């Protein structure tokens, strides 16, 4: 079969290091009956060892040529190939108790993480390879330079653990950045939720829109409505110093005052 030329428009970097592949599969630890979906199987570096341990694997591949290679290589009994953009896929169609894995293209990683969060109630876990700086932001703690809107929005919905780094030499062609493997486990139904999740997302986005400004500046129109001392927040803090729970508290306080959207101001 002809060699596949990596396509920049799809952000393709193919994992080729067998030791790294084995480490990722060990971390995922697939079982025969798992409902597993692989996003971006590429040249099947992970597809093959995963498929060998599963009754059936679903693979979502946007590249027509790679999708065709997968169909030629694996039987339909073992691999269901869906030729589509993962950003456009309705994951609810796969049912519940899903396990999702993938070496995500760096150019769509953040929007895809946000898109998948709406299906979190139907997901057991997610294991992704992403750019290291993205993973560092995902798992960052308040007060660190990496703590960001991405940190807050994903930590609101998931418990996340950075597992290990992957050197560029593990890929063909090698990317210009170091990658990392992250495990994402959705928080259960008993987690604290914002009274108005759209408003919560708006408060977080507004707070991080001007990172160098204090909260009392960037949220100036709503400062009188927020019980700062009750929430244990100093209005002189900057966005990266505030915890996920504190952001929920601010959004809930505004909601209690009749604010349904920051766009109203």
TrEMBL record:
Q: What class of enzyme is it?
A: transferase
Q: Which residues form the Ribosomal RNA adenine methylase transferase N-terminal domain?
A: 20-188
GO MF terms, alphabetically ordered: 16S rRNA (adenine(1518)-N(6)/adenine(1519)-N(6))-dimethyltransferase activity; RNA binding
Q: What is its EC number?
A: 2.1.1.182
Give me the reactions it catalyses: adenosine(1518)/adenosine(1519) in 16S rRNA + 4 S-adenosyl-L-methionine = N(6)-dimethyladenosine(1518)/N(6)-dimethyladenosine(1519) in 16S rRNA + 4 S-adenosyl-L-homocysteine + 4 H(+)
Q: Which SUPFAM superfamilies match?
A: S-adenosyl-L-methionine-dependent methyltransferases
Q: Which positions bind S-adenosyl-L-methionine?
A: 13, 15, 40, 61, 85, 103
UniProt cross-references to PROSITE patterns, sorted A to Z = RRNA_A_DIMETH, SAM_RNA_A_N6_MT
Instruction: Give a Gene Ontology cellular component term annotated to this protein.
Output: cytosol
Coiled-coil region = none
Per UniProt, which keywords does this protein have? Cytoplasm, Methyltransferase, RNA-binding, rRNA processing, S-adenosyl-L-methionine, Transferase
Location within or outside the cell: Cytoplasm
Family assignment from sequence similarity: Belongs to the class I-like SAM-binding methyltransferase superfamily. rRNA adenine N(6)-methyltransferase family. RsmA subfamily.
Check the record and name the HAMAP family matching this protein.
16SrRNA_methyltr_A
- Protein name, entry field: Ribosomal RNA small subunit methyltransferase A
Tell me what organism the protein belongs to. Jezberella montanilacus
Q: Organism classification, top ranks?
A: Bacteria, Pseudomonadati, Pseudomonadota, Betaproteobacteria, Burkholderiales
């Amino acid at each position: 079969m002809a060699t596949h030329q990596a396509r920049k428009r799809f952000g393709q970097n193919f994992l080729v290091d067998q030791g790294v592949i084995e480490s990722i599969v060990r971390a995922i630890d697939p079982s025969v009956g798992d409902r597993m979906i692989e996003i971006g199987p590429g040249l099947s570096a992970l597809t093959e060892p995963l498929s060998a341990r599963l009754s059936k694997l679903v693979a979502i591949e946007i590249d027509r040529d790679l999708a065709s290679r997968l169909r030629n290589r694996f039987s339909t009994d073992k691999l269901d190939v869906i030729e589509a953009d993962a950003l456009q896929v309705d994951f609810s169609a796969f049912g519940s108790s899903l396990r999702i894995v993938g070496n995500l293209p760096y150019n769509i990683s953040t929007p895809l993480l946000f898109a998948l969060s709406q299906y979190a109630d139907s997901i057991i876990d997610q294991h992704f390879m992403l750019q290291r700086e993205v993973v560092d932001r995902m798992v960052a703690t308040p007060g660190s330079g990496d703590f960001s809107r991405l940190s807050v929005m994903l930590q609101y919905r998931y418990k996340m653990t950075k597992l290990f780094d992957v050197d560029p030499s593990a890929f063909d062609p090698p990317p210009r950045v170091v990658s990392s493997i992250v495990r994402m486990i959705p928080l259960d139904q008993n987690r604290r939720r914002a009274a108005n999740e759209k408003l919560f997302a708006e408060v977080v986005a507004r707070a991080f829109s001007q990172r160098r400004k204090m909260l009392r500046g960037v949220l100036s129109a709503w400062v009188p409505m927020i019980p700062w001392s009750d929430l244990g927040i100093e209005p002189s803090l900057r966005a990266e110093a505030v915890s996920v729970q504190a952001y929920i508290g601010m959004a809930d306080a505004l909601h209690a005052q009749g604010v349904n959207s920051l766009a109203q101001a």
